[in-house]
């Protein structure tokens, strides 16, 4: 106790600045990878670290040895796994944009408006048999796929989305990705599902919707240009021939509109 108090007395302004700078750098780096799938890898490493500490505390020799080797391997693998994020961080640091403010989550009213605009948009596209693929980002970031398209950062509106998917326009091919209440990008390329049991009638848009929802928790809305049918992909499964009311209820439920808070977000959902 005396040793702890002596160290606390030596804690000065320089130490405080040191801790604050390190905390800010870690926070900015976390916000940088938050919108990508890399954040899931970070959570996995943290779980392994907690298990390692518990195994060491309870003197579980075999588990401790195994996790120790895994952690050593991760130390070598981290620069490879996070190579895109590290490069982006260095680029932003060079441009002086590393220390920037990050947008907060939208409120309930905003998300309800987004759902309403999406339902209106899909109904217009379905009636006119215009093919479309719209992705709604949730907890797992899809920044990797945003980078493959044309960045927009525009408000979500049915008129805007319909205009994007008009045939023979520059952005009608590919997917539109919506983040919070903004259209993040259009013309994005998504991974196709490799599931061999997919219905042979489904085209590239449906396969892309399934492919993305298999590896992320995103929602994917698909409008078929052949039949005008509206489908929604969730967790690698496709719900086809969705009517207006069902689509709205499903979106409100999956986006958790009734319980989301713009001010309090549990740390386990960061």
From TrEMBL:
Keyword DNA repair attributed: no
Keyword Ligase recorded: no
Domain DAC stretches: 83-244
Protein keywords: ATP-binding, Cell membrane, Membrane, Nucleotide-binding, Nucleotidyltransferase, Transferase, Transmembrane, Transmembrane helix
Residue ranges crossing the lipid bilayer per the database entry: 12-33, 45-67
SUPFAM superfamilies hit by this protein: YojJ-like
Taxonomic superkingdom: Bacteria
Single GO term (MF): ATP binding
GO terms of biological process kind: cAMP biosynthetic process
EC numbers, comma separated: 2.7.7.85
InterPro entries: C-di-AMP_synthase, CdaA, CdaA_N, DisA, DNA_integrity_DisA_N_sf, DNA_integrity_scan_DisA_N
Catalytic activity as recorded in UniProt: 2 ATP = 3',3'-c-di-AMP + 2 diphosphate
PROSITE patterns: DAC (PS51794)
Subunit description: Probably a homodimer.
Family: Belongs to the adenylate cyclase family. DacA/CdaA subfamily.
Physiological role: Catalyzes the condensation of 2 ATP molecules into cyclic di-AMP (c-di-AMP), a second messenger used to regulate differing processes in different bacteria.
Matches recorded under PANTHER family: DIADENYLATE CYCLASE (PTHR34185)
Protein known as: Diadenylate cyclase
Species per Swiss-Prot/TrEMBL record: Desulfosporosinus lacus DSM 15449
Lineage: Bacteria, Bacillati, Bacillota, Clostridia, Eubacteriales
